[in-house]
Amino acid sequence: MRHDLPQLIGAGRVEWDGSAGEVVYAFGFSRRRVSRWERIRQFIFDRDGRACTYCGAVDEPLHCDHVVPASRGGSNEPSNLTTACKPCNLSKNDRTPAEWLNSQTR
């Protein structure tokens, strides 16, 4: 959940749909529901301090990376997700962190 959610609700920019357990962002007259994946991504970014867990970068676009790649059976559970900057995530591709780090030292 976003850390600034109470302020956004107070400012009338966000509505909370308690019955569905979802946040509805209000932009003018249009609304969009925040997907479950977006909520998970924001949770992972917050949990990891909005920094790449591989190189520590904070000034790069962030991706939510699968530690064990989904293509190799990895899940979307928070325990298998981590924050990665765009360069690290694209470089890691479909490898585990150990495989990726091993390839970087050669």
Overview of the structural elements:
The chain is of the alpha+beta class. 31% of the residues lie in helices and 23% in strands. The chain contains four helices and five strands; from the N terminus they run αβββαββαα. It has helices at residues 5-10, 36-47, 86-92, 97-104; strands at residues 14-17, 22-27, 30-33, 62-66, 81-85. Strands 1-2-3 form a three-stranded antiparallel beta sheet. The chain has a two-stranded antiparallel sheet with strand order 4-5. β2 (22-27) and β3 form a beta hairpin. The mean pLDDT is 79.
**Total beta-strand segments:** 5
Radius of gyration: 17 Å
Spell out the helices and strands N to C: HEEEHEEHH
Shape: globular
For the biggest β-sheet, the strand order reads: 1-2-3
Output the number of helix runs. 4
- Oligomeric state: single chain
| Largest β-sheet summary | 3 strands, antiparallel
Share of residues in helices: 25-40%
- Mean pLDDT across all residues, rounded? 79
* Termini gap: 40 Å
Structural class, judged by helices and strands?
alpha+beta
Characteristics:
alpha+beta, 106 residues, 4 helices, 5 strands, three-stranded antiparallel β-sheet, single chain
List the topology elements:
Elements: H1 5-10, E1 14-17, E2 22-27, E3 30-33, H2 36-47, E4 62-66, E5 81-85, H3 86-92, H4 97-104
Antiparallel strand pairs: 1-2, 2-3, 4-5
Describe the structure in brief.
The chain has 106 residues and is α+β, with helices and mostly antiparallel strands.
